[in-house]
TrEMBL record:
Superkingdom assignment: Bacteria
One Pfam match: Pribosyltran
InterPro entries cross-referenced by the UniProt entry: PRTase-like (IPR029057), PRTase_dom (IPR000836)
Species assigned in the record: Candidatus Lloydbacteria bacterium RIFCSPHIGHO2_01_FULL_49_22
The Phosphoribosyltransferase domain, residue ranges: 9-162
Name listed for the protein in its UniProt record: Phosphoribosyl transferase
The keyword Oxidoreductase is assigned to this record: no
GO molecular function terms attached to this record: transferase activity
Record keywords, A-Z: Transferase
Length: 209
């Protein structure tokens, strides 16, 4: 399955999540791109929208390739085989830099709006796709600390091996494409896949108030 853009993917994802409409879930989007889809899902499910802000740690020689991910609270998940070859001091600085950027984004995106706790509820984590799955997995780590009733991951596309890992760490994983023949990049599944700006994220969150 291919998508016109993130809104199209979000609408299709919302249809796949219809069974959760009556359980009063909370939708947690991963900025920036995931907020576009999260807004569509939250609207369709009549659910609150909040963020789990994660940051990818890219390989020093190939920044787009994730070797780890961190949350604003400092939760860290790494590809151990990759980080064994990385200078520990470089990694420490990269983790701190990305954690600070995650904290900056919460302040910019949500101002003084408090985080919505996942305690005792169904938490649906939404992103525009997964490549390594590290940012989604660290988002799960962060929400698990809040003791939700259930954690569901919803993404339009993810490789089958990543889905298998996510299934072990959550209650359910919902995807819209066959990950067996993954095209190598999330953007390959979208006709229109531009960068999402901070201003767009803020506008999308304000729509959900």
């Amino acid at each position: 399955m291919y998508f016109k853009d993130r809104r199209d993917a979000g609408k299709k994802l919302a249809k796949a999540l219809e069974q959760y409409r009556d359980v009063q879930p909370i939708v947690y989007a991963l900025p920036r791109g995931g907020v576009v889809l999260g807004g569509e899902v939250a609207r369709a499910l009549h659910a609150p929208l909040d963020l789990v802000i994660t940051r990818k740690i890219g390989h020093p020689s190939e920044p787009e390739y994730a070797i780890g991910a961190v949350t604003e609270a400092g939760d860290l998940l790494c590809n151990e085989a990759e980080v064994e070859t990385i200078d520990p001091e470089w990694l420490k600085q990269a983790v701190e830099r990305e954690r600070n950027e995650a904290a900056r984004r919460r302040k910019v995106y949500l101002s003084d709006r408090p985080h919505i706790s996942a305690r005792g509820v169904t938490a649906i984590i939404v992103d525009d796709g997964a490549a390594t799955g590290l940012t989604l997995r660290v988002a799960v780590m962060a929400l698990q600390k809040e003791h939700p009733k259930k954690i569901v991951i919803a993404v339009p596309v993810a490789p089958s091996d990543v889905v298998a890992v996510l299934q072990k760490e959550t209650d359910e994983v919902i995807t819209l494409t066959d990950g067996e023949e993954y095209l190598g990049a999330v953007g390959s599944y979208y006709e229109h896949f531009p960068q999402v700006s901070d201003e767009e994220v803020i506008a999308l969150l304000n729509e959900q108030k």
